[in-house]
Specification:
By secondary structure, the chain is mainly alpha-helical. The chain contains four helices and no strands. It folds into two domains: 32 residues, no CATH class; 43 residues.
Length: 100
C-alpha cells in the first residue's frame, strides 16, 4: 500500500497510529518534548488586523472590480464627449458671431 497517495481517513486506525509512531493513549511526555523540539509547537499564526483602508485597497485586486471601474470611466468619458459635441454643434448652428 502506497501511504503517500492514500488519504488518512481511509487508513485503518492501527496502521495510522503506527505511521504517526504513537499509541491510542497518546504520546509519553518525553516523546512530546522531543517532537516539540523537532517540529515546533502546533499553533496557528495570528491573523493581521486589517484597517478600513487596507480592506478598500484589497477590493481592487479582483479583476471584475477593475473591469467595472474601467467601464464606468469609459462611460463617463464618452458621455462627456457626447455632450461636448452636442453643445459645440448648437453653438455653430447659432453662428460663430452671435451672442448667447
Amino acid at each position: 500500500m502506497n501511504h503517500s497517495q492514500t488519504q488518512f481517513w481511509s487508513v485503518p486506525s492501527f496502521e495510522l497510529l503506527q505511521q504517526l509512531q504513537t499509541t491510542p493513549q497518546g504520546l509519553m511526555s518525553d516523546e512530546v518534548q522531543q517532537r516539540l523540539l523537532r517540529y515546533g509547537s502546533n499553533l496557528l499564526k495570528p491573523k493581521k488586523k486589517s484597517d478600513a483602508l487596507t480592506l478598500l485597497i484589497a477590493q481592487f485586486k479582483s479583476p471584475i472590480i477593475l473591469i467595472l471601474i474601467f467601464a464606468a470611466g469609459l462611460s463617463f468619458w464618452s458621455s462627456a464627449l457626447l455632450w461636448y459635441f452636442i453643445l459645440l454643434q448648437q453653438k455653430w448652428q447659432k453662428g460663430p458671431f452671435t451672442k448667447g
